[in-house]
Amino acid sequence: MRPRSRRRRSIVVLALTVVAVLVAAAFTAARAVLFPHVDSPEWVDAVVVVAGSHDDRYVYARSLAEEGVADHILVSQPPSGTGRYAAAIDSYCASTPVIARDGRRIDVECFAPDVDTTEGETTAATRIARERGYRSLLVVTYWGHVSRVRMYFEQCFDGPVYVTDTPRPTQISRKYALLHETGGYFKAFLKPAC
Fold first, then answer.
1. Residue 109: helix, strand or coil by DSSP?
2. pLDDT tens-digit series, residues 9-44
3. Of the candidates 19, 23, 28, 34, which has an alpha carbon nearest to the alpha carbon of residue 180?
4. Contacts of 28 by beta carbon, 8 Å cutoff, 6+ apart
5. Residue 115, number of CB atoms within 10 A of its CB
6. Distance of alpha carbon 6 from alpha carbon 36, whole angstroms
7. In this structure, is the dihedral angle defined by the CA atoms of residues 112, 118, 119 and 124, taken in order, positive or negative?
8. Residue 157 backbone class (left: φ over 0; alpha: ψ -120 to 50; beta: rest)
9. What are the residue ranges of helices labelled H in 114-145?
């Protein structure tokens, strides 16, 4: 066999291998975005709500705490929030403490993320959790964001991290979530938050 032919074959094999790896990675990311694993722990030290305005994550986090999952809620309050969204979070943050039906006091603590991104929310929430002595967290987000949020929090937080989505469907389309979150998923894999 001639050297030129071997080199061409090696290039073809390398190209096919790269394509196969990329396709496998894309399917893995798509599965993580569209069919995430969600958790439902009985008790955690705090429920963390990452920012989002198209679903009921704030109401759901409070409901979980009132049901006895936690006595503390940490809420990301990004400075970029505007309009009805910002007003809703301001009102939510002002509602502390919440008294559950069983008489427990639930503290709501709002925080500005280190940077107005999921990574920034993760690093700020993790720092606060360490300062408060929280050893376990339940993070609430929407279904398409679950796997990426889990990845970031597991990179940064030392204790058990559980992640769940909201029971009410979001207005975000599956197509948008797949494109946006798959890109974010690869970013989280390649550039850890912590």
1. strand
2. 778 777 778 777 776 666 666 676 667 888 889 999
3. 34
4. none
5. 14
6. 44
7. positive
8. beta
9. 118-132
Identity of the residue numbered 127: R
Full 3-state SS string of 168-180 = CCCCCCHHHHHHH
φ/ψ of residue 91, rounded to 5: -65, -40
Predicted model pTM:
0.79
Strand order in the sheet with 98-99: 98-99, 105-111, 72-76, 46-49, 137-141, 161-165
DSSP 21: H
DSSP, collapsed to helix, strand or coil, labels residue 44 as: coil
Angle between helices 118-132 and 146-156 (to 10 degrees): 50
- Beta-carbon neighbour count of residue 81 at 10 Å? 17
Which single residue is written with the structure tokens 């920034």?
A: 120
